[in-house]
Write a structure and sequence with these properties.
The protein is mainly α and about 130 residues long. Helices cover about 85% and strands about 0% of the residues. It has a single domain, classed as Membrane associated eicosanoid/glutathione metabolism-like domain (Four Helix Bundle (Hemerythrin (Met), subunit A)), CATH 1.20.120.550.
Length: about 130
């Protein structure tokens, strides 16, 4: 499961980086906490960070159980696609939110493949017992 663990940790690092970028943007805008509106650049960084946290709730169990029941290497590959997709999403969304589509698809699709594949693999495992 080491490849899966490595990819999960890369995704966690990515979330931390997105959070740091949101924090730096907050500082540049001189936007005092707890405000989350008032500066468009900060709001974009904030949304990237928050949306990625939301995706992690689906991604982490999906990749873990897919790796357990289907394939470690496929899980890691799909996980890397998720990480790259989130990076593309972040760059696109901060530049122009209307261009976030490709990054969103490249991160959401692997999540659903991981979750549905894990569900199928766990179900199949249960049936074979």
């Amino acid at each position: 499961m080491e490849p899966v663990i490595i990819v999960i940790l890369l995704a966690v690092i990515e979330v931390v980086v997105f959070g740091m970028r949101a924090g730096l943007s907050r500082g540049r805008a001189d936007l005092k906490a707890p405000a989350v509106i008032g500066n468009e650049e900060f709001e974009r960084h904030f949304r990237v960070h928050y949306n990625t946290i939301e995706q992690m709730v689906v991604f982490v169990p999906g990749i873990w159980f897919f790796g357990q029941y289907v394939s470690v290497h496929w899980a890691a590959g799909l996980g890397l696609l998720f990480v790259v997709g989130r990076a593309i999403y972040a760059i696109s969304y901060v530049k122009d939110p209307e261009t976030r589509g490709a990054g969103m698809i490249l991160s959401m699709l692997p999540c659903w493949v991981l979750v549905l594949g894990a569900l199928a693999g766990a179900t199949w495992s249960l049936i074979l017992v």
